[in-house]
Amino acid sequence: MSEKKCRWGFLSAAWIGIKNWQSVALSGNGEIVAVASRELSKANAWIDECSAHVPFPERPEAVEGYDELLARDDIDAVYIPLPTGVRKEWVIKAAKAGKHVLSEKPCGINVKDVEEIVAACREAGVQFMDGVMFMHSGRLTDLRKAIDDGTSLGTLKRINSQFSFCAPDDFLQGNIRMHSELEPLGCLGDLGWYNIRFNLWVMNYKMPTSVTGNILSGASRPDSPDKVPTEFSGEMFYEDGVSASYYCSFITAMQQWANLCGTEGNIHLDDFVVPCFGSDIGFTIAKMTSNQDVCDFNMERREQRITTQEYGNSHPTAQETCLFRNFGELVLNNKIDNQWGDITLKTQKVMMACLESARNGGQAVTL
């Protein structure tokens, strides 16, 4: 691995950045140079908290204001976890400043936003990538082998997934994800993005021919102009007969499972977004058969557990670490991989089509 480091700037002292602070430290090829906040005291306090847990050889510098960080010449790449409602502005500013961009998702409030983001990064010759960590897990390599081996699933027919957590009252009353101007897509943008991305990955990024969606419930914090989705279900339909359903929610118990079903068997993941704690992660291949001998009826289930030697979190092998390491390698090797922007744009297009369907009574939307 190159001794040169990808020099990171964090645009915002957001909560999610605490996890990614450690990811940069464990990546082996990155270092955080500066953290920007609208308030210098907040950036300093955030850096002190993170440094006490995972210190860098040199303490990152606190910067007051995002423009000041983008103007620095000792920053190669920026991580942007700002609210979706303002994200486009700062991604485009970062690109124009010559900074490579790792952006949290959803990357825009609509398709046009993301088209402009991707175009700006390509015009500036900088790498763009969204922060879907499971895309960088070694488990996907093993899962792809099982999908394509012809025997574990047979012919794929159906994909189902759920990503949800039951938010406490302080979340529902105060979190930015409950504000229609900051995060207008609610649970669909925050959680459903992962369901849609997983479906697209399984289908090798082939776009569905049509989708449907339903907002099952909505709510907002007191100062929000409008409600945001707090429960959402969607369907994706493909011309070869494959269909995919998903459910995401802020008001049901934490689940993050995905199931693939084919003509011969099924594959199940209990933790497709954030792996459960442990030194390996995996999935289960299962087949069921029924046997009857006159009055005797037996249902048999046969399972095979496939594991990948990869820690679930806080480790050099963890998917969040691999995300920053992979991004850093692109930067350090002066390689731009435009596929990442294409994947982000496809995810946004499917998500917005599902939302369009939901706002029109669940009518199918053609892509």
Distance between the termini: 42 Å
The share of residues in extended strands comes to: 25-35%
Overall pLDDT score? 96
Number of helices: 10
CATH architecture of the largest domain: 2-Layer Sandwich
SSE succession: EHEHEHEHEHEHEHHEEEEEEEHHE
What is the CATH first-level class name of the largest domain?
Answer: Alpha Beta
Going across the major beta sheet, what is the strand order?
14-13-12-11-7-10-9-8-15
Mind summarizing the main beta sheet?
Answer: 9 strands, mixed
Give me the oligomer status: single chain
- Helix-strand category: alpha/beta
Number of domains: 2
Rg computed from alpha carbons, rounded to a whole number of angstroms: 21 Å
Number of DSSP E strands: 15
Q: Specify the overall morphology.
A: globular
Question: What percentage of residues falls in helices of 4 or more residues?
Answer: 25-40%
Unreliable runs, pLDDT <50, ≥5 residues? none
CATH topology of the largest domain: Dihydrodipicolinate Reductase, domain 2
Full CATH superfamily name of the largest domain: Dihydrodipicolinate Reductase, domain 2
